[in-house]
Amino acid sequence: MANGFPIGLTAARPEVADSVKKLTISTFGGGPVQSAAAKAVIDLIEEENLAGNAATAGAHLRAGLEDLKDKYPLIGDVRGMGLMQAIELVQDRGSKAPATAETLQLMEAARENRVLIGRGGLNGNVIRISPPLNVSRTDVDSFIRTLDASLAQVSAPALSGTQG
Description:
46% of the residues lie in helices and 12% in strands. By secondary structure, the chain is α+β, with helices and mostly antiparallel strands.
């Protein structure tokens, strides 16, 4: 809400908020400086139409991820909304068995290709993608190219160890 500056917000319907009779809700960040930072961030989001950019760039990101899913059987699912997207890596799409080891390999390949990605999911096989709201189509294209190269490294058949 304040672009990393510590602030908290509690939001509730009036009937819920009115039911709290004691001062039980607090935050470590809620003074005038934090409030000014949050207001500046909210103003920038509105002025730069970053919600609209999230929808447009998010659709472009999703299309790129869907193309990668078509190319790599390792990707079992693409899901998300706007700029918050995820790809689930599976050993095969039939059983949907989690590809946990391959997820770690993909993270390392992406790091070697100068992109840091994180993982989540119950089995640690879901790559989380959440770029900043002001990401451009060019940035998304660059990310998709790098992720493609990283997936290619992980999906390449293992070398037999012998040379012919």
